[in-house]
Design a protein that fits this description.
The complex is a heterodimer. Chain A is built from six helices and 13 strands. Chain A is an alpha+beta fold. In chain A, the strands form two sheets. In chain A, strands 1, 4, 5, 6, 7, 8, 9 and 10 form an eight-stranded antiparallel sheet that branches. In chain A, a hairpin with a 6-residue loop joins strand 9 and strand 10. In chain A, helix 3 crosses helix 4. The N terminus of chain A is likely disordered. Classes of the chains: A alpha+beta, B alpha+beta. Chains A and B meet through helix 5 and helix 6 of A and helix 4 and helix 5 of B. Chain A: Belongs to the peptidase T1B family.
Chain lengths: 235, 217
């Protein structure tokens, strides 16, 4: 407390002081980030989404049970990666816009609409934001869909998408193990396996695996705790 | 634009690369891609061989700065053949790895090179050693390195099994290289593979169009 007040009275930048002052820990000046692994897969009739649960400020894990799967509407979720503040703010804005739009239309919004709303915010403010988002859900028109809105604000629909810092380690695994036309159970197993592998290699991903499956009938959420993670590594 | 050009001039030719080695029942497979690039913008060679023979049954793969790696390997080959003459027997794989490690560690401020060493010797059979950037040396049953390796950690963790057969291991290595080359833009070209067993050495080259294709290709 005393150190903070001293900093404010001298009018100096937090980050400058952190570097010099041994009383101030490094992680005070570091932004909260969901360095993370997120994934979304389409199947016939819905989508499966998954994420790890670690939020870091530098080397400190600020939250080890984070929920990165955020509901935007009844049958539309988003998976957040990048700056925790940025992605929470964008998700709040989009869920407001989508809720309003849905009431105007008097029917469930399309996943494509939600994805375009994310894209609009991420692209317009691309210089200020650090947000990589996967939008996934079910609607009556096109069934299960996954849209990827990476940093920079591009929008692309993909049958399977991965994101976050841990995703680099599982590109090879995904390329070789994903097949089109998988069942919901296969998608859940693949997502849990891929997230487990990424969490074992990426320092910014870890904790528990959160999964959700979205279909016409609703949203089913589950959590796989650390000791129940699938044993995918062979060595 | 100017900043990026300067970057490439200062850094020189670098092997943005994918290299790997894996032990199987009776031998090792060591392999790499074949692309050398300047700053990630220009491919200066499509067919460079990054799997270098340092002795009869010991091969090394290089990663990092091509210039540094070639210089270190040249010195290592000399040291190793001298050592072999002194001991009056073929060098052990760990000797080759240690020579590289000494050079990398003692010159760590100037060098930017990492190596994977694989081979067979009478003492310990098939072995794989990795010497990373600062000069740490570690023996592993399977190891991957280079810029393209980040994309295949998950695949290797899930797919590699100790004591595979020669064919299974060769297929595993080819698949891993193909997956990495498919995602890393500074890895590519052909896949160079070398199989080292008690009976000898076999080179396998898989051209780009014969590499395994995965669902999205």
């Amino acid at each position: 407390m005393a150190a903070t007040m001293m900093m404010q009275s001298r009018g100096q930048n937090f980050n400058e002081i952190s570097a010099q002052n041994a009383l101030v820990p490094d992680w005070i000046g570091t932004e909260v980030s969901t360095g993370t692994t997120i994934m979304a897969v389409e199947y016939d009739g819905g989508v499966v989404i998954g994420a790890d649960s670690r939020t870091t400020t530098g080397a400190y894990i600020a939250n080890r049970v984070t929920d990165k799967l955020t509901p935007i509407h009844d049958r539309i979720y988003c998976c957040r990666s990048g700056s925790a503040a940025d992605t929470q703010a964008i998700a709040d804005v989009v869920s407001y816009q989508l809720g309003f739009h849905s009431i105007e239309l008097d029917e469930r919004p399309l996943v494509e609409t939600a994805a375009h709303l994310f894209k609009a915010s991420c692209y317009r403010y691309r210089e200020e934001l650090t947000a990589g988002i996967l939008v996934a859900g079910w609607d009556r028109r096109k069934g299960g869909q996954v849209y990827c809105v990476p940093i920079g604000g591009m929008l692309v629909r993909q049958p399977v998408a991965i994101g976050g810092s841990g995703s680099t380690y599982i590109y090879g695994f995904m390329d070789s193990n994903y097949k089109p036309s998988m069942t919901k159970e296969q998608c859940l197993e693949l997502t849990a396996a891929a997230l487990t592998l990424a969490m074992e290699r990426d320092g910014s991903s870890g904790g528990v695996v959160r999964l959700a499956s979205i279909s016409e009938d609703g949203v089913e959420r589950r959590v796989i705790l650390g000791n129940a993670l699938p044993k995918v590594s062979t060595h | 634009m100017e900043r990026r050009c300067l970057d490439a001039q200062n850094k020189g030719v670098s092997t943005g690369t994918t290299i790997l080695a894996a032990t199987f029942d009776g031998g090792v497979v060591i392999g790499s891609d074949s692309r050398a690039s300047v700053g990630g913008e220009y491919v200066s060679s499509k067919t460079i061989n990054k799997v270098i023979q340092v002795h009869d049954q010991i091969f090394c793969c290089m990663a990092g700065s091509l210039a540094d790696a070639q210089a270190v390997l040249k010195a290592a080959k000399f040291h190793l053949s001298f050592h072999s003459v002194q001991m009056q027997s073929p060098p052990q794989v760990i000797a080759a790895a240690s020579v590289l490690k000494e050079l990398c560690y003692n010159n760590k401020d100037e060098l930017q090179a990492g190596f994977i060493t694989a081979g067979w010797d009478r003492r310990k059979g098939p072995q794989v050693y990795v010497v990373s950037l600062g000069g740490m040396m570690v023996r592993q049953s399977v190891t991957i390195a280079g810029s393209g390796s980040t994309y295949i950690y998950g695949y290797v963790d899930a797919k590699y099994r100790p004591n595979m057969t020669r064919e299974e291991c060769l297929q595993f290595a080819t698949n891993a290289l193909a997956l990495a080359m498919g995602r890393d833009n500074v890895s590519g070209g052909v896949a160079h593979l070398v199989v080292i067993t008690k009976s000898g050495v076999e080179h396998v080259v898989v051209p780009g169009d014969k590499l395994p294709k995965f669902h999205d290709q």
